[in-house]
Write a structure and sequence with these properties.
The chain is α/β, with parallel strands linked by helices and 258 residues long. It is built from eight helices and eleven strands.
């Protein structure tokens, strides 16, 4: 059965929310990685994906200036947004009031090592018309991550292929592995592709009990009956939240020695 052409994203835009208010790593978007701020590295990775234009949604002028100096496009947003989703919604409504873009990819500004292929993969689930929001996950290979509450797990069954419906997200190890560490658990990667109407609906929803309990914004969508599908990818990009993470990013992105 053929899918409606309108279900397949035709005009995506990538929006990267960024702010300076992180507590564990102050001024994180501007952290230097081999002569360029971290936000510039993320912007370049997004550009390399080649799926559509890239805009950085900034809470502060300093971030916008850093993006422009790197050659990118930036838009200033209110500094008091509660989440990155709220920030990207304001940004896309500002740059595209005529709704030329049918899909909005929310790429976190602290993923300087993300592979462009992962950004491309997040669009795959939207080929299914019933999907409101798409995201990605990768198998957990480090046993310590299975019980780490900082690693968000996606409860997804990939029985029929590399795209499947998300049933839940948790900081706990879900689904239950029965004590068998050989059963796969999936590390959720904080990258989303929203249909434009789904993003508008999502940011208008109030916070929900499960969202507040797990501190996971995507549960608001599931509690509201929105459908989230997940694309399976091979690698987990490094999220930079601490000085130790920044040191790892610098090591991973170190220029090759000739």
């Amino acid at each position: 059965m053929s899918r409606p052409a309108s279900a397949i994203p035709a005009t995506p835009v990538i929006v990267i929310p960024a702010r300076l208010g992180a507590t564990r790593l102050p001024d994180k978007p501007l952290a230097d990685i081999h002569g360029a701020p971290m936000i510039a590295h993320v912007w370049r990775r997004a550009m390399d994906a080649g799926v559509g234009p890239v805009v950085v949604a900034c809470a502060e002028e300093a971030i916008a200036e850093a993006v422009r100096q790197a050659g990118g496009e930036a838009v200033l947003t209110r500094p008091d947004h509660a989440s990155g989703s709220d920030r990207i919604f304001e940004a896309v409504e500002t740059i595209d009031p005529d709704h030329r873009y049918d899909t909005v990819i929310n790429l976190q500004g602290d993923l300087p090592t993300i592979a462009p292929e992962i950004v491309q993969a997040v669009l795959r689930p939207l080929a299914e018309p019933a999907v409101d929001i798409a995201t990605v996950a990768a198998p957990i290979s480090d046993p310590a991550e299975r019980r780490d509450p900082n690693v968000v797990k996606a409860a997804v069954g990939f029985a029929a292929g590399p795209v499947a419906r998300a049933l839940y997200f948790s900081r706990a190890p879900v689904p239950w592995d029965g004590g068998d560490a050989g059963r796969p658990l999936y590390h959720h990667i904080g990258l989303y592709a929203f249909r434009r109407a789904a993003l508008r609906r999502f940011v208008a929803l109030p916070p929900t009990p499960l969202e507040q309990r797990e501190r996971l914004e995507q549960l608001r969508a599931l509690e509201a009956g929105m459908r989230i599908d997940v694309a399976l990818v091979d690698t987990i990009p490094l999220g930079v939240d601490t000085p130790a993470d920044l040191a790892r990013a610098r090591a991973l992105l170190a220029p090759a020695q000739g």
